[in-house]
Amino acid sequence: MLTSRLFLFVFLSSFVITVLGNLEQVNDTDLEKLIANEKFVIVLFREETCQGCDELEGQLSSIREDLVDALNAWVVKAVSSPLVSNFTAGKEVGKPLVVYFRHGVPLLYDGPLNDEIMLETFVQNKEAAVSHLNDDSFEHLTQAASGATTGDWFVMFYRDDSEPCMKFLAKWEYIASQLKGRINLAKVNIKDDGISTGSRFGVDQVPAFLFFRQGKIFNYDLPKLDSKAFQDFALGWYKNVPSKNVPSPKTPFDELVDRAVFMLKENPLLLPAAGIAFILILMAVGFNAWKSRKPEKPTKTKKSVKKSN
Ligand SMILES: *[C@@H]1O[C@H](CO)[C@@H](O)[C@H](O)[C@H]1NC(C)=O
Ligand SMILES: *[C@@H]1O[C@H](CO)[C@@H](O)[C@H](O)[C@H]1NC(C)=O
C-alpha cells in the first residue's frame, strides 16, 4: 500500500516536473514572426539532447511566469534550429543558447546559468543598450577629441557584410548590459554611415574594438572574445595597453573624400571608369582654358522691352 502510494507520488511529481520543465516549442517561421511582432521574446536554442540543455530549460521554465508578469514576454524554445547560427561560431556550436529579443534586437545571454540572475538581467534590460553612431553623430555624442564629459566609450567597428561581426552584435548587447551606467557602448558601421569615422581611426579590419577615455584611444586586440574579457578591459585592463591620442574630427570635405576613396576601394571595377571620368574632366577644363584664350566676340545683350499699353 505504502509503496504503491510512494510510487504514485514519485510518478506524479516526475510528471509535474516534466510538464513544468518544458517550454513551448516553436518552428522557425513562427519564431521569426514572434520576434518581428512581439516586444519581448526569450528563446532557448537547443538540440534534442545535449549537455546542460534540460537543466537550462528547467531554469527558464521556472522564471517563465515572472517574465510573463514583468514583461509580458514570450518564453519559447527552438530545437535544432538553423537560426542559432546567427549567434554562434566555431566551437560554440551545440551548446544551448538563450537569446533575448527586445523589439527585435537580440541580446545573447552570456552570464551565469542561474534563474535569478537571468530574470534580473532580462527585466533590467528592456531597451537595447548599444548606441548606433555614425559620421554625423560620433564626435557630437562621444566628444572623443576633447575628452570631455560624456564618459568613456567602448566602440565596436563593424561591417554589415561581415558574418563574424553580425554574429557578435548580440554579445555586444550583453556586454553593454553589464557595463550599463558605467561605460557607454556603441557600434559604427564602417561600410555604411560610418565610413569616415572608420577612416579617422584607421580601422581596416573588422570587428575592431576601441576604447575611448579622456582623449585617448586604447585598442582591444586581445584574442579573447568572451564577455568577461571585454568587461575587464573597460573597467581597468585598458591601462596595460599602449594608448594613442584621438585624431581630430574630419571636415565635411574629408568625409566626402573618404567616401569616394572607400567606394573605389570596394569596387575596383569602378577604377577605370573613375580614371576615364577624371581624364574627361581634365579635358573639359583644358578645353575651357584654351577657349577662353581666344578673344571673345562682344555679345549684345538683348534687353526685353516691355510693351507699354
Ligand atoms: C510552424 O508551425 C505552425 C503552427 O504553429 C504551422 O502552422 C506552420 O505550418 C509551421 N511551419 C513549418 C514550416 O513547419
Ligand atoms: C538571422 O539572420 C538573418 C540574416 O541576417 C535575419 O534575416 C533573421 O531575421 C535572423 N533571425 C534571427 C532569429 O535572429
Automatic annotation (TrEMBL):
Q: Where are the transmembrane segments?
A: 269-290
Q: Which residues form the Thioredoxin domain?
A: 131-217
In terms of InterPro entries, this protein maps to: Thioredoxin-like_sf, Thioredoxin_domain
Q: Where is the signal peptide?
A: 1-21
Q: Does the keyword Membrane apply?
A: yes
Highest taxon above the source species: Eukaryota
In the UniProt record, does the keyword Phosphoprotein occur?
Answer: no
Key words of the record: Membrane, Signal, Transmembrane, Transmembrane helix
Descriptive protein name: DnaJ protein subfamily C member 10
- Organism source for this protein? Daphnia magna
